[in-house]
Each structure stands twice: as C-alpha cells, then as structure tokens.
C-alpha cells in the first residue's frame, strides 16, 4: 500500500512526539543520578541541575560504609519480592480462573465479594490486631509477605477479564472431552495463553513488594528481616536526626555529611533494579494491560 505524503508527515510528528515523551520520562532519573553525585555544598547553593558545577561521590561512600547491611537488605528484598510475588500470582490466577468460568455456582456473588474488598476494608487497627493476635506474624518473615499484598483484588479482576476475553471456551471443552480436569486446563491452557496478563500483574505485585516499607514498620522490629527500602528509610531518618539535634551531632562534622545528596543516592539505589528489569518485561506488560483492562 502506497503511503501518502500526509501520512508520512503525520508519522514524523508522531515519532517526534513519542521521542519527546520518552526523553521527558527519562530526565527525572538522569537528574536523580546527577544529584546523587553532586557535591553537597554545590547542591545546597545551586539546587538540582543537569550540569552540576562540582561532582562528588561522598553520598555513595556514605552508603558503602554500610555495605554489608545494604547487601543483606538487598538480598532480603529479593527474597521477599520473589516469595510474595509468587504467592500473589498463584492465588490470584487460581481465583481468577474460577471466576472466569461461566458455570461456576455463586460466580456473581464471588465476583462482587472480590470487588467489594477494593472499596472497603477493616482499617489499620483491626488489621494489625488480627495479624498479630490471631495469625501471630509479628517479627516473622511472613509479616513482610501476608499483610495487604499477598492477594490483590485488582489483579484478580484484571486476570479474570483477560481469561474471559482472550481464551476461547472451546479449548476448555476440548480438554474436557479428552479427559482433562480443571487442573489440567489451568496448567496446559490457561497459564501458557495467559502469560501476558500474568507477567503484567506479576510486575505490579513485584513493584509493590519491592517498594514496601510499611509492613516492616508495622509488623517487624527485627532489623535482620528488613528489606532495602526499610533500611534506606532508617538511614534517612538517622541523617535528619543528626542534623536536627546539635547535642548528638556535636562530635560529627555535619559539613562532610551528605544530607541532601545521600537522599538522591538512596532513591537511585532503590529504583535501579526495577529500571534494569522492566525493559525485558515491557512487551508482556503492554499486551496484558491492553487486553486485561477491556470489560468482559
């Protein structure tokens, strides 16, 4: 098909617009990194800049001094993210598959029940009392996994919609004729064909676990179980405490303490693994969101 001149001009403008949008999205991360390697005094005097007048790695040296703690927290965060995301996807996909079946008894009530949990919850205090008094997860590894994130109603609804719209029911019927049950259908039909939405929702769950520090704040006092976000948050709190309490910081040279740049370094360290992984999952993410968001 011959492309007209107007179409070519339109495509050029669309490409330019998308390039500009991509640049605008990348610029905050570039500014974040440049701010983290800017000298503290320069950062205070001139603010954040894409062209810092003087560079310094003092903020990263400050982080390296706590290298063993940071590496341990990173390892803990990877473990929490892997276990939490795996459980989230197992429970979400199983429930979504059941809700996608037209002949499921009580399907409308169960769908409404899942949706209802997106709108209302018991509140923080009752939730805390339930998890600590009944399930006894305080100061345990499960205190970082179970509360809030292990089963997401939004994930269930998105996955259910994808299963309904993208997987023909004829495949289910053919599998049943061949003697397969629901477990066989789920393993050999639903999971392979549902890969785009499962990867997309798994990415959401992984980001939630990776960025979470509230579970550790509420349920875990043991610092050996803390993830990277909780550790970095404590480091920021310690720096703020030193800067605000002259009695405590009398023996500390605050001029050499990168109170501003270290926050940028901490933010960059926290987001770096996510930036590295996302490009490899982007194709599944786009397709899964586009199909899973269509109302079924």
What's the gist of this structure?
It contains 13 helices and no strands. By secondary structure, it is mainly α.
Polypeptide structure, described:
This protein is an all-alpha fold. It has one domain (67-292): MetI-like (MetI-like fold, Orthogonal Bundle). The chain is 71% helix and 0% strand. The protein has 13 helices and no strands. The chain has helices at residues 5-36, 40-46, 58-64, 67-100, 107-119, 124-134, 153-166, 169-177, 182-193, 195-211, 214-219, 228-244, 261-292. Helix 3 packs across helix 13 (261-292) and helix 12 (228-244) runs antiparallel to helix 13 (261-292).
Which helices and strands appear, and what pairs or packs with what?
Layout: H1 5-36, H2 40-46, H3 58-64, H4 67-100, H5 107-119, H6 124-134, H7 153-166, H8 169-177, H9 182-193, H10 195-211, H11 214-219, H12 228-244, H13 261-292
CATH overall fold name = MetI-like fold
Low-confidence stretches: 288-296
The name of the CATH superfamily reads MetI-like
Topology as a string of helices (H) and strands (E): HHHHHHHHHHHHH
- Helix/strand structural class: mainly alpha
Using the 3D structure, state the CATH architecture.
Answer: Orthogonal Bundle
* Number of alpha- plus pi-helical segments: 13
The total of beta strands comes to 0
Mean pLDDT, nearest integer?
79
CATH class: Mainly Alpha
Share of helical residues: over 70%
Shape: flat
C-alpha termini separation: 35 Å
Radius of gyration, taken over Cα atoms and rounded to an integer in Å: 24 Å
Quickly count the domains: 1
Largest sheet: none
